[in-house]
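User: tokens in, sequence out, please.
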């Protein structure tokens, strides 16, 4: 595990967020579309190559100089149509939009889709395909007075005149699962708290729990506390009751990973790790809420979409726990687990989180 974390850290030192998101917004008016594509500056560089002087810093002049290349790339990887013909796009001048994980290039466009009013729309989104397999497009589309959202990866049909509540439920469920799997910061925090669940603290060293029950109880406490905490703040943020600055939230999330990982190396909290999970889980909930802010909660289905997204987060989280913890229990008594995984693995996680903390605090 330490080797995997280390290789990942070396391979992508500039990324404070692992998930690669693109944003596509569409507003349908009859047979015409007003839209915009938004890609992270780092993704634009990977896809088009705009850093002309190779100094690692992309200037606004370099982006403007490569706008035509960006338009051609978007046209080749994004197709919007009515099922029979492709909509004809015209792009306007690109702009820069600042988000918590860096600058994004915002490319607006207008499009005409045949001559009749659109009842359904086909969106084939393949941006970053073959470059970053983690990339997904977050779609927000407004038509007939209703806003819908979807996670794009390939071709997808959107019903405009009769939006389905079930489709919306599934989309937010998938988004929740995808976010917890792609949001490695949340997973590393949870993993750091779960690694000692199959151990107990002896005389200044970790030793294996003798039976499965104590390990199961420890896992249940940590997961339940984390779930309860982030569900509370996710709901508060989603309904605009409590808001925190994104940079503060993301920085504290990175700090929470450091605390959890270092506690495995220099144990101060052994039996009450669920308290750490709950305390920092409140901040992680605000992090989850940032995804909903990007997608938006559809009017008339805010509660349903929130529940669906949260169920997706819990499902993704549970899948990781079920995949990792039986293996951890099976090898808990080995020197490999107690030394390599607990000590060196936790050290690598702490170092990686420290890099994120610096990036998020000063970026």
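Assistant: Sequence out:
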């Amino acid at each position: 595990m330490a080797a995997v974390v280390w290789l990942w850290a070396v391979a992508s030192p500039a990324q404070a967020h692992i998930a690669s998101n693109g944003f596509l917004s569409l507003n349908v008016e009859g047979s015409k579309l007003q839209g915009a594509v938004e890609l992270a500056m780092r993704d634009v560089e990977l896809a088009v190559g705009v850093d002309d002087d190779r100094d690692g810093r992309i200037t606004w002049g370099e982006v403007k100089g490569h706008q035509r290349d960006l338009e051609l790339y978007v046209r080749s990887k994004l197709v919007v149509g009515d099922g029979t013909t492709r909509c004809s796009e015209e792009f306007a001048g690109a702009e820069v939009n600042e988000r918590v994980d860096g600058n994004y290039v915002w490319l607006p466009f207008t499009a005409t889709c045949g001559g009749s009013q659109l009842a359904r729309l086909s969106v084939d989104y393949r941006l970053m395909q073959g470059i970053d397999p983690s990339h997904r497009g977050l779609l927000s589309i407004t038509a007939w007075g209703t806003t819908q959202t979807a996670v794009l990866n390939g071709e997808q049909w959107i019903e405009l005149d009769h939006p389905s509540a079930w489709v919306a439920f599934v989309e937010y469920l998938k988004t929740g699962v995808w976010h917890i799997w792609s949001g490695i910061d949340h997973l590393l925090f949870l993993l750091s708290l779960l690694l000692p669940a199959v151990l107990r603290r002896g005389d200044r060293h970790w030793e294996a729990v003798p039976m499965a029950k104590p390990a199961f109880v420890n896992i249940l406490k940590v997961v339940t506390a984390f779930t309860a905490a982030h569900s509370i703040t996710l709901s508060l943020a989603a309904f605009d009751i409590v808001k925190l600055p994104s940079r503060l939230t993301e920085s504290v999330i990175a700090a929470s990973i450091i605390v959890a990982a270092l506690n495995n190396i220099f144990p101060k909290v052994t039996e009450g790790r669920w308290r750490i999970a709950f305390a920092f889980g409140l901040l992680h909930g605000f992090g989850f809420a940032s995804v909903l802010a990007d997608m938006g909660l559809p009017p008339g289905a805010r509660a349903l979409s929130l529940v669906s997204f949260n169920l997706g987060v819990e499902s993704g989280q549970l899948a990781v726990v079920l995949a990792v913890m039986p293996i951890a229990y099976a090898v808990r008594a080995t020197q490999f687990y107690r030394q390599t995984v607990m000590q060196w693995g936790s050290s690598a996680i702490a170092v990686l989180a420290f890099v994120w903390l610096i990036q998020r605090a000063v970026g």
